[in-house]
Design goal:
CATH architecture of the largest domain: 3-Layer(aba) Sandwich
CATH superfamily of the largest domain: Alpha/Beta hydrolase fold, catalytic domain
Largest sheet: 11 strands, mixed
CATH topology of the largest domain: Rossmann fold
Strand order of the largest sheet: 3-4-6-5-7-8-10-11-12-13-27
Length: about 600
C-alpha cells in the first residue's frame, strides 16, 4: 500500500508555529478537549516533511497511525421531522473502552443502502487514513437515498434537519468526544454547509470541496442558466429515491415508493423550469429555502478548510469565493484555511490529476487540520492560503487575493487594443449572435481554444506583447457599456494568454442583460437604451508570461455549460475613453513563497 514514495523536505521561512508539536503527530490518546480559544496554528510550512505515497488513487497520511479498525455497524435514526428513517454507518477505531474519539462524517446521496456493505470499503480514503489515527468515520445517506426514508429534498430544510440530527447523534454517543467534522466533494461537500446552516453545536469544522451553499446561485447566476438548470439537476436527484437506489440495490420497497411519490421533488422541477425561463427565484420560495448563506453567517461558529478547483466546471469557484473570504473569514472572523488549485470538479489528491496539480499530501494536511479542530492539539497547520496559478506554480500566503495587489485597469478601444491609457475616442463595436459554433467558446480553461479565436460575431481586444510577466488574482471585473438593439441580450467575456499561436484560457464570465446591475430581479431591456453590464469573472489566479499578450474576447454566445434564454439580437459595445473598463488586481510574488507540490 505504501511502497512507492517520494521524499519531501520541510520548507520553512520564518516559522511561527511550535516545532515541538510536530514530533507527536501520531497520538497515543485518541481524544482531547478542544480549547475554548485555540491558536490558529497557521505557519509558513509549505509541505510537511516525509515520504509520500504516489501510486495510490488517493493520498495517504505519512504514518499509518497506532490504532486498528474496531467495531463497525449500521443503524437507523427516526427523523424528528416526520419519523422517516435516517440511515447511518459507523466505523470506530479500536481504542480503550473508556476512550472517547472525534468523528469524521460523510453525508451523501451516493452511498447506496449502507446496510450490508463493508463499511471499511465504503469510502476507503476516509477509513484508511483516519480510523487508524483515532477517529470514528461515519456515513449518512441523505433523505430519499441509500435506505433513508422519504424522498429527495435537494438541500432543503427537511434534508438539512435530518443530516444535522445525525451529526447530533454522533456527537452525543458515549464513545464520542462530542466533536464532529464533515467533508466531501460536490453534493457530499454541500452537506457540511447544510449542517453549518443549522448551527449544530457538535459541528466543529467543515471541509467543503466544491460544495454548494445556494443552489439557485449555482445554476442561475446573473440570469445565466446552467444547462442542467431546466429540471435536469432536480430530476437526477429525484431519481435516486426509486430509479437508482431501489430494492435491487437493497432499498426497501416502502422507501422506494416514498422516493417515487415525492411532491417536494415535483415542486423543485417546477421551480427549476421557472428560473431557467426567467432567471429569477421562484415565487413559491423553493430556492429561498435552500439558500444556506444567511443561515451559515448567523448560526455557524466552527472552522472551515475551503478546497476548490479554479477550473471547476460543475460548481464554479465563484460559488465559494469571495463569499467565504468576505463574509465568513473577515466579517464573521471564523478560522478559515484555503486550498485553491488548477483542478476541475474533484478531490485535490486524485490520481486522475496531472503534476504539479495533484496534492498527494492532502490526507496529511487533513490529519493536521482534524487533530487541531477535533482533538484540540497544538499542531502545525501550514499556511492559511495555498493557491496554484495558471502556469502550475504553487505558493503560500496569508491572504487571497494577496494584500499587496494593485488595481490595474485596461481599456478596450475601437482599434482592438487593451490600452493602459483611456485617452482614445469613444467608439462602438458590434457583438452579434452567430450561427458559428465558434461564438460559443469551449468551457475548458485550457484546450484547443486557439482554433476558435477569432470567432464570428465576437469582439476581440488585446495588449501588446508584455515586457514582463503580469500576475492577477481574484475576480476581475468587466463593466461593459452596451446598447442592445433588441428586447434582450446575453454577453460572455473570456480572458486568454496568447503566446505565439497558443491560447490559454484564464477566466470567463457571462450575464443576461436583464440582470445587468446584478441581483436576482430581472429588469426590462429596452432597445436603444444604454446600460452597463457589471460582469465579474469567476475567481482565478493567472499569469500572462513575458512576451505573451492578454486577450479579451466578448461574445453574445455562451459556453458549453450556460444557456442563453434572452432573445438574441446584436449588441453595441461602447469602447474607448473610460467606458467598458477591465479591472484586475495585479501583484508580484516572492520566490520564498513558492514551492513544488510533493509529487513533483
Amino acid at each position: 500500500m505504501r511502497e512507492a514514495v517520494v521524499a519531501v523536505l520541510l520548507v520553512t521561512t520564518g516559522l511561527t508555529g511550535c516545532i515541538g508539536a510536530m514530533e507527536d503527530l501520531s497520538p497515543t490518546s485518541a481524544s482531547d478537549a478542544v480549547e475554548d480559544e485555540p491558536t490558529t496554528g497557521f505557519t509558513d510550512t509549505h509541505v510537511f516533511e516525509g515520504e509520500y505515497v504516489t501510486d495510490e488513487p488517493y493520498s495517504l497520511t505519512l504514518e499509518e497511525g497506532p490504532f486498528e479498525a474496531g467495531e463497525t455497524g449500521a443503524m437507523y435514526l427516526e427523523s424528528q421531522v416526520d419519523g422517516k428513517a435516517i440511515e447511518i454507518g459507523v466505523v470506530k477505531p479500536d481504542v480503550a473502552e473508556d476512550e472517547q474519539v472525534p468523528v469524521v462524517a460523510f453525508a451523501s446521496p451516493y452511498l447506496n443502502p449502507i446496510h450490508g456493505q463493508d463499511l471499511l470499503e465504503l469510502r476507503p480514503r476516509l477509513t484508511e487514513n483516519f480510523v487508524h489515527h483515532g477517529y470514528a468515520v461515519a456515513f449518512v445517506a441523505v433523505r430519499g437515498t441509500g435506505d433513508s426514508g422519504g424522498c429527495s429534498h435537494l438541500m432543503g430544510p427537511v434534508e438539512r434537519s435530518d443530516v444535522s440530527q445525525a451529526v447530533t447523534w454522533l456527537g452525543e454517543q458515549d464513545w464520542s468526544n462530542g466533536n464532529v467534522g464533515m467533508l466531501g466533494v460536490s453534493y457530499d461537500g454541500s452537506t457540511p454547509w447544510e449542517v453549518a446552516a443549522e448551527g449544530n453545536e457538535h459541528l466543529a469544522t467543515i471541509v467543503p470541496i466544491s460544495g454548494v451553499n445556494d443552489p439557485f446561485q449555482l445554476m442561475y447566476t446573473n440570469g445565466s442558466a446552467e444547462s442542467r438548470g431546466a429540471a435536469v439537476l432536480n430530476g437526477a436527484y429525484y431519481a435516486y429515491g426509486f430509479g437508482i437506489d431501489n430494492p435491487t440495490e437493497g432499498r426497501s420497497a416502502e422507501r422506494t415508493i416514498d422516493g417515487a411519490l415525492c411532491p417536494e421533488a415535483k415542486r423543485g422541477l417546477a421551480a427549476s423550469l421557472h428560473s431557467t425561463a426567467t432567471g429569477e427565484r421562484d415565487p413559491t420560495g423553493y430556492w429561498a429555502e435552500r439558500n444556506m448563506r444567511p443561515l451559515v453567517e448567523e448560526n455557524y461558529n466552527g472552522s472551515i478548510f475551503l478546497v476548490h478547483g479554479l477550473q471547476d466546471w460543475n460548481v464554479d469557484p465563484g460559488h465559494a469565493m469571495p463569499w467565504v473570504h468576505d463574509r465568513l473569514d473577515h466579517e464573521q472572523d471564523l478560522k478559515v484555511k484555503y486550498w485553491l488549485g488548477q483542478w476541475f470538479h474533484a478531490w485535490p489528491d486524485g490520481d486522475y490529476l496531472d503534476q504539479p496539480t495533484r496534492r498527494v499530501d492532502f490526507a496529511e494536511v487533513l490529519l493536521h487540520w482534524f487533530d487541531s479542530e477535533l482533538k484540540g492539539e497544538d499542531v502545525d497547520l501550514g499556511p492559511k492560503v495555498q493557491v496554484q496559478d495558471s502556469t502550475g506554480q504553487w505558493r503560500s500566503g496569508d491572504h487571497w487575493p494577496p494584500q499587496n495587489a494593485t488595481e490595474r485597469t485596461l481599456h478596450p478601444t475601437a482599434e482592438g487594443e487593451l490600452a493602459e491609457a483611456n485617452d482614445t475616442d469613444e467608439g462602438t463595436v458590434t457583438v452579434g449572435p452567430s450561427a458559428s459554433p465558434a461564438s460559443n467558446q469551449p468551457l475548458a480553461y485550457q484546450g484547443d481554444a486557439a482554433s476558435q479565436i477569432p470567432c464570428e460575431g465576437c469582439a476581440e481586444f488585446r495588449t501588446g506583447e508584455l515586457d514582463e510577466p503580469v500576475r492577477f488574482a481574484g475576480t476581475p471585473t468587466f463593466h461593459a457599456d452596451v446598447t442592445p438593439t433588441g428586447p434582450g441580450g446575453y454577453l460572455s467575456a473570456f480572458l486568454y494568454a496568447q503566446e505565439g499561436g497558443e491560447y490559454t484560457r484564464l477566466g470567463w464570465t457571462s450575464m443576461d442583460l436583464r440582470f445587468h446591475d446584478g441581483g436576482d430581479q430581472a429588469q426590462p431591456v429596452v432597445p436603444g437604451e444604454r446600460v452597463t453590464a457589471k460582469m465579474q469573472f469567476e475567481p482565478l489566479d493567472a499569469v500572462v508570461p513575458e512576451g505573451a499578450q492578454l486577450v479579451l474576447v466578448v461574445t453574445e454566445g455562451g459556453h458549453a455549460d450556460r444557456v442563453s434564454t434572452s432573445a438574441p439580437a446584436p449588441v453595441q459595445l461602447h469602447v474607448g475613453a473610460d467606458v467598458s473598463p477591465l479591472t484586475m488586481q495585479t501583484f508580484t510574488v516572492s520566490e520564498e513563497d513558492t514551492f513544488a507540490s510533493p509529487a513533483e
